[in-house]
Prior knowledge:
The protein is an alpha/beta fold. The protein folds into 2 domains: 1-102 and 270-357, Isopropylmalate Dehydrogenase; 119-256, Isopropylmalate Dehydrogenase, CATH 3.40.718. 40% of the residues lie in helices and 20% in strands. It has 12 helices and 12 strands. It has helices spanning 14-32, 45-51, 57-64, 90-98, 122-125, 165-180, 196-209, 222-231, 243-257, 295-307, 312-327, 346-356, and strands at residues 2-10, 35-40, 68-73, 103-109, 130-136, 146-151, 154-159, 185-190, 216-221, 238-241, 264-268, 274-278. Strands 2-1-3-12-11-4-5-10-8-9 form a 10-stranded mixed beta sheet, sandwiched between helices. The two termini are 19 Å apart. The site of nicotinamide-adenine-dinucleotide has 21 residues, from loops.
Amino acid sequence: xxxxxxxxxxxxxxxxxxxxxxxxxxKTAAKFGHKFxxxxxxxxxxAIDETGIPLPPETxxxxxxxxxxxxxxxxxxxxxxxxxxxxxxxxxLGIRSALGLFTNLRPAKLYPALRSASPLKDEIIGSGFxxxxxxxxxxGIYFGDRGYREGKYGQEAYDTxxxxxxxxxxxxxxxxxxxxxxxxxxxxxxxxxxxxxSRLWRRTMHSLSEEYPEVEYxxxxxxxxxxQLVRDPGQFDVIVTSNMFGDILSDEASQITGSIGxxxxxxxxxxxxxMYEPIHGSAPDIAGQNKANPIATILSGAMMLRYSFGLSAxxxxxxxxxxxxxxxxxxxxxxxxxxxxxxxTCTEMxxxxxxxx
Length: 357
Ligand code: NAD
């Protein structure tokens, strides 16, 4: 099969890690008889340097014309004094909205070889965890009505959480479909004991769950979920939640894996085209030193194969190559344990994964 991929390398370690993912995708294409073409576009600080703005129209057009998008990271101290609406990070909201991406999928998986990197105690980790957080990305309080007004104590600021049945069903369906491909459990997280929008969220999720009798469905209040994630993370498979709760819980879930350089993410919309990126930033402190861990971006590439191109066996092959390289004891500096020997560079880690593929 043939697919076109827009590359948004961005800033800092972005170019290094995207080049690594491209090398792994090219090897995968060769192994399975596919053809991937890659076209780079500017985004973030490098786009400001060249064009004056972080998200040039050619980048949006290029992404819309591609089958999918792979992003590195944007931002860095060089652009910190840019005005708010021209900061590199502003481009991320712009490109997500231009591509109509309303779902964010964030796996939080504990790699057995990296158990010691988790801040959780061994008895809490138990046999490990592999959670998929499905976060609504374009609704809720981050996009609701906001402003200033006169309140009981003088001027006050307000933001509004609002969700329609259509938005809840749309994200719910993604969660149930995702669970059908995993261990068939969905936990919907809300604050239905307090918020009206959460009560509608819960009612809608309940009705939707009837369409998926094979999926074991449960609800949880967000405050309890925040506790349960550090008390017994193994109980979760797919978590589905609103924009703000997902923002907070997905960061908590990534921290308990202990390895920011390992975690991938996917943003999806109504079409097969998605945007895939590591959850970490541009790591300016190690940029250009060949020290970055490329695995989060390589795994983002695997998610692209699975979710945008329907190439599950190919995605499995990449994920299993990463597992085997870690099991064999290879590490980049960020995941080096106290007993490990010298770390691999970004390019050496990429070569190891390609070798095993
Ligand atoms: P960061 O994720 O870039 O870095 C945090 C720490 O983790 C640093 O010590 C860094 O060296 C390390 N780290 C991150 N990724 C790594 C990797 N792949 N391998 C090894 N070590 C890694 O977060 P930050 O320092 O808060 O932000 C730096 C810049 O990135 C800022 O400009 C911020 O706005 C931007 N940012 C961008 C995105 C994005 O593009 N999606 C996300 C978060 C932050």
